[in-house]
Amino acid sequence: MVRQSRKKIEQIKEDEPMKVCPYVFRLNKSSGNSKKRSKPKIIYLLLFSLISSCFVFAPHLFYFPYPSALCLIDSSIKEIEDQVSQTNTEPPKPSIIEESILCDRAGYRSDICFMKGDIRTHSPSSSIFLFTSNDIITDHVMQEQIKPYTRKWETSIMETIREVKLVTKDVKKLFGDKHSCQVIHEVPAVLFSTGGYTGNLYHEFNDGLIPLYITSKRFNKKVIFVISEYHKWWEMKYGDVLSQLSDYPLIDFTKDKRTHCFKEAIVGLRIHGELSVDPSLVQDDTTTINEFRNLLDRAYRPRINRLESTEEHRFHSKAAKRRRMANRPKLVLFSRTGSRAITNEDLMVKLAQRIGFQVEVLRPDRKTELAKIYKVVNSSHVMVGVHGAAMTHFLFMKPGSVFIQIIPLGTDWAAETYYGEPAKKLGLDYIGYKILQRESSLYDKYDKNDPVLRDPNSITQKGWQFTKGIYLTNQQVRLDLRRFKKILIDAYSKSIS
Ligand SMILES: *[C@@H]1O[C@H](CO)[C@@H](O)[C@H](O)[C@H]1NC(C)=O
């Protein structure tokens, strides 16, 4: 019976309204476990609500040029609210708009669910309940599952992410104080994971902070972040940035066992692409990658002001020298040791100084305070480094400045995709310096005709473990300084013009 009904759902999905809005009250397989599964009437009622809610959403979809096939539920809810408040027409039907669990699973990189109504967290079972008295909803328990992390396509890392269950509960069956609210919040929740690859700078920005910015910006800091796979160090490291996105303390979803109550919650994050914000996917034109960078600037300013006042104090006698140096354009070098290090780095630094740069060499580790790095990078004209996670710091550069990425053999695709292209989107003057065979330490290890040197693509095509084993963890760079000098001179003239 259930199977049959589901077939009907499939059929209806072919119809127009469903195409427009395929995610409203999406039935989940697990809902088949509910005791009431053998009641076809219920299913029809549900279908009716499905279709009718689509009609509610559908008109708005024609107002806005949404990307095809995507039903941006959060935006449509927002648009409905906006429209209602702007035109002051009838309020939206409470049963459909005010109580809902809507999941958008169309994204390649992430799923995201939206809840409205009487929302209560239940940390021990990793659940968020939606309490309702709406018969249409209560007669058929709805349950959605979601892993609130933005690397949906990478099954192995997703296995490390705890699933969150979103479940409807009948408010009439709410006895005693079992689920009574212990903390009541007037602002919405955004729940996401800081597990997975968190610990790597690129992933922290790409999988976490930028998606968090995209998802939560519209709440204007009136939002509470609920975090699964929470790490204290992460909160410390990004405290400055988080305070620009939310006025409220974080909730550690695993450790904080209290029942938190919300009227609205988003579970999961929207993500657009590598270290970027796609303007065509946001309604509001103040959500951009440049605005994200401005947010970083605001985030780090107080700390930098404090750093500067103590520096003034300490280096007062060196002020004259600093003033002389300050006239020179600054080049910041992200230095690596071990793999992908530049073996003639000292000579490269001297060369840059001779050309006229004031050079600052940074070797950040996981404990280095980001505000300090921001301070250096934000005051630089040129940033140089060998392809790797530290290139994420290009986000700290002022638009218009020069970013030189040194690209070891076999890393072209990753270098361009993860950093080169996003840097251009931020408005940086990006230069990819592809090293020649003889600038690679692999040149001494392999025969000139070995495909490792001659045709890196043929090796990297074989899979990530080959790219990693041969090119990422076992290669160093010995710059041809005559060749690199041209790049530096070019960067210098751009810096002083
Ligand atoms: C970054 O640099 C710009 C331009 O030099 C400056 O106005 C801004 O205050 C700097 N940001 C911080 C946080 O120091």
TrEMBL record:
GO annotation terms (biological process): mucilage biosynthetic process involved in seed coat development
Localization in the cell: Golgi apparatus membrane
Coiled coil: none
GO molecular function, one term: 1,4-beta-D-xylan synthase activity
Primary location: Golgi
GO CC field: Golgi membrane
UniProt entry keywords in alphabetical sequence: Glycoprotein, Glycosyltransferase, Membrane, Transferase, Transmembrane, Transmembrane helix
Membrane-topology descriptor: Single-pass type II membrane protein
Residue ranges of the TM segments: 42-66
Ranges for domain Glycosyltransferase 61 catalytic: 298-404
PANTHER family: GLYCOSYLTRANSFERASE, XYLAN GLYCOSYLTRANSFERASE MUCI21
The name this protein goes by in its record: Glycosyltransferase 61 catalytic domain-containing protein
